[in-house]
Amino acid sequence: MPLVSFSELIAGAKNGKLVSFPTDTVPALASRPDSAELIFTAKERGQDKPLILMAGFAEDLWPYVAGTPEELEIWQNIAKKYWPGALTLVLPASEKVSPQMNPLDPTTLGIRVPNSPIARKILRETGPLATTSANKSGQPALLNLQEIAAEFLEVLALSPQEFETTPTTGIPSTVVKWTLGGWEILRQGAIIL
Asked: How far is the C-alpha of 66 from the C-alpha of 108, rounded, in Å?
């Protein structure tokens, strides 16, 4: 698929197509949550690896999680400290979450706000998107949009002419899961807790 403009990428995402854009960690492969099966198919990814719901604002993500007022306060405090940034919070999922996001355990959901101006600009236009790294399952993450467009012919990849280059670390986000009133590190990434 050729590289596309910002407006073409937004329109494609809203119409349920696969898209790719830079983030602060690695470029994202993304779709509307109700089209998440497209990501699993394109990546040849097993159902045992859930997707992350990414948004431009933290406030856009809280309706997708379910917890007590006390838990929500704890989660929002850690989000205020590390977002936008490379921290993914795995929390109990609300009924609003498409089961396609986490097919084998739809009771939990990973959420994140990236520290990338272009990613947040896109996500503010599209609303929260199902995301993962742009690569075939088991392969290293592709780090430039030209490679992504060549590897995934069905994906609308944002043209580099559409944004100022922002540094990507190439290091995935740290993933922490809320369990029994505390945090469990599922993947150590860019942020050290």
From this structure: 9
Tally of domains in the chain: 1
Cβ atoms of 42 and 60 closer than 8 Å: no
Contacts of residue 76, Cβ cutoff 8 Å, sequence gap at least 6: 58, 62
Task: Report d(CA 120, CA 57) in Å as an integer.
Answer: 8
Question: Who wins on pLDDT, 137 or 166?
Answer: 137
Residue 193 lies in a domain: no
Task: Supply the pTM of this predicted model.
Answer: 0.94
The first and second tokens of residue 65, run together, are 């999680």
Percentage of residues of the chain with pLDDT beyond 90: 78
Q: Is there a domain that residue 177 lies in?
A: yes
Query: Considering the domain boundaries, does residue 192 fall inside one?
Result: no
| CATH number, position 74 | 3.90.870.10
Which residues form the domain of 93? 3-187
167, pLDDT greater than 70: no
